[in-house]
Amino acid sequence: MPAMDDHVHDEVAERLELRGQRYTETRRSLVDVLISASMPLTLPEILAQGRTLAQSSVYRNLSELEKAGVVHRVVTADDHARFELAEHLTGHHHHLVCSSCGAVIDFTVPSRLEGTLERELASVAERHGFVVDHHRLDILGACTDCATPRPSAPRLLGSITPSIRGNRCQEGPGGASPH
Questions:
Q1: Class for domain 93-153+161-169, per CATH?
Q2: pLDDT digit string (tens) for 91-121?
Q3: Cβ contacts of residue 27 below 8 Å, gap of 6+?
């Protein structure tokens, strides 16, 4: 097991202990799934990777890990929750969030840009009397799959029609929205 994994497990155990909670084998397995993930995962994705985990147990344990500050919930435009380890365990990053399918892609920016972003956000916060702890940046848009027009739905330059950007699972024949 890599040293980074050991560090994460030690931190999770410590945070749970501070809340009077135990770091059970189920919680450890759940954290292992999140450690190995390259992006935030939905509950079905967690269950698929952690084959021995029971759905009801995963819900309950994700909630406890979130309360302990070791798991972060990313809620997408489709209101589906995705889960990842908190930034203090994995490093600061941002998200590209697809407004159509709910996909979430982690990304980082160069440190110089991150510094500029921090200063500008602190300036905005100061003008409003707000004290910043940290920031999260979620950029909403369309992933490659959802942004690519289908042959039956040509895309006009300069505009994106709702049927192309909408939830394709709810589209009718030929990309037309049933609504």
A1: alpha beta
A2: 899 999 888 888 888 899 999 999 999 999 9
A3: 12, 16, 61, 64, 65
